[in-house]
Amino acid sequence: MQKLTVFFVSDHTGVTAEAVGHSLLSQFRELEYRPLTVPFVDTPEKVEALAARVRAAMPAVIVSTLTDPRIRLKLRDCEAPVFDVFDAFSEPLGAVLDMAPTASSGQFHGMGNSYHVRIEAVNFALAVDDGLNPDRLGEADLILVGVSRAGKTPVSIYLALQYGKKAANYPLTPEDLGAHTLPPVLLAHREKLRGLTLSPERLAQIRNERLPNSRYASLENCRSEIQAAEGMLAASGVPTIDTTRRSVEEIAAMIVHGG
Amino acid sequence: MQKLTVFFVSDHTGVTAEAVGHSLLSQFRELEYRPLTVPFVDTPEKVEALAARVRAAMPAVIVSTLTDPRIRLKLRDCEAPVFDVFDAFSEPLGAVLDMAPTASSGQFHGMGNSYHVRIEAVNFALAVDDGLNPDRLGEADLILVGVSRAGKTPVSIYLALQYGKKAANYPLTPEDLGAHTLPPVLLAHREKLRGLTLSPERLAQIRNERLPNSRYASLENCRSEIQAAEGMLAASGVPTIDTTRRSVEEIAAMIVHGG
Question: Which residues of A, range 106-135, sit inside 8 Å of B by Cβ?
Fold first, then answer.
């Protein structure tokens, strides 16, 4: 049998349909499938074009997030099984709320904060990345603190893009670590501080990718830097997350929701 | 009546539950609700703690993405209506595939590419941002080209984080624009180039936020830069997107899916 094609269909970017679809399909471990995202399907003509592609790709399944019920109905032309989030939930949710759903194509999809706020936050994260412009720490919602290569930069950018949080990040240098207390520039914003730490073994691995066989990357140095950093963070009561086995998304969610 | 609380519940970050929930709820325009995300709900004990919070917050509704059916079943203790993506789709999808779903908590949620690839791509995007390190353009999957402040940086970072694409970005300087053809360093990678453009009015607005009342931000200068840039991109056959009314996510989806 030909390999299954799974179409992720959306009237917007397709990111939510992809997320829902991949999680559902990951429950079927033996299943191999070809994923194919078709975004911006917001007219009957685009559904017709989609239907031709689906019929040519059989066997196929459609996972979709189409807000307009007329467009959803037209999906039946594809002649493949359809799993649509709005089809499944709009009516029962309307019954619970005692309200009628209105079609609102792409009105809200994906990220949770206003667009302008998120872009501002990204620009902020880049401007204060890696300890740059410490005079702007006062503007930050959060300040990520940790040793070099503890994963602060991707987390601060993700906090900005996904959550609209202005996250600065400040690397604890060997000089900072020798001082046995967090730098005054950080202590002035103590309630905004969030520590990131990780296992010395993982840190050494990451640093070795950058500067192989350096003192900087040695396990001994990583161990002593992390011990000093964790000590300083704990002494100042800074909530600290161990990032060793966690993804950027997980770390960001823990920071935002206090997990 | 007290305002409705909507709990977004997940055994992972909650980002997918938030996206699904907010889109569903945006169909009910008059509805005001208090959103509350509870991530990492992956044990019966955590459901019990959640149930106490839900009962204290009534009236409440739960939108969830819980992969483990035992945990989902325990959600009933919350005594609020539950709309769960796996509850709705796992069985019917299994019937279509003729396979039984297995519980796989947080196995795949959210973003579509392997973690390491995405983090590498973010580091790459930062290293080559704004025309830095042009010798590394050969490593790029894509090179975003446009005038200063056309929105290249957030798009390249989003392409990296969401899609694992190594996206460089190259700003066309006034000198480049005077040459009437794209710089040789870009033409060497013509098939990777993607143009970003926008309306002169919007560009002037963005630049005025940065450098108010400058020649750089003047409508006249923006108009002439954009005209020159669009001409050069078109002459070299570079697919170009008008970003004026589009979000970073939309632009990225169009680039990735060729929309």
Answer: 107-112, 115, 118-119, 122-123, 126, 129
- Spans of all domains in chain A: 4-97, 115-257
Tell the CATH topology of A4-97: Rossmann fold (3.40.50)
CA angle A69, A71, A74 (to 5 degrees): 110
> Coil, strand or helix: which one is B64?
strand
Residue that has been written with the tokens 């299994």 in this structure: B94
Q: Distance between CA B49 and CA A121 in Å, rounded?
A: 33
CATH code for A115-257? Answer: 3.40.50
Q: Which residues pair with B211 in a beta bridge?
A: none
B48/B81 Cα distance (integer angstroms): 16
Tell whether B29 is within 8 A of chain A (Cβ): yes
Complex ipTM: 0.88
CA distance A80 to A64: 12
Token digits of residue B58:
């009534």
User: Who's near A26: CB < 8 A, 6+ residues apart?
Assistant: B104, B107, B108
Phi, psi of A198 (to 5 degrees): -160, 170
* pTM, to two decimals: 0.87
Place of tokens 């179409």: A7
Q: Does the distance separating the beta carbons of A107 and B23 come in below 8 Å?
A: yes
The pLDDT tens digits along chain A (259 residues) read 679 999 999 999 999 999 999 999 999 988 999 999 999 999 999 999 999 999 999 999 999 999 999 999 999 889 999 999 999 999 999 999 999 988 765 454 444 457 788 888 999 999 888 888 888 999 999 999 999 999 899 999 999 988 999 999 999 999 999 998 999 999 999 999 999 999 999 999 999 988 999 999 999 999 999 999 999 999 999 999 999 989 899 999 999 998 5
Exposure string for A89-98, b = 16+ CB within 10 A, e = fewer: bbeebbeebe
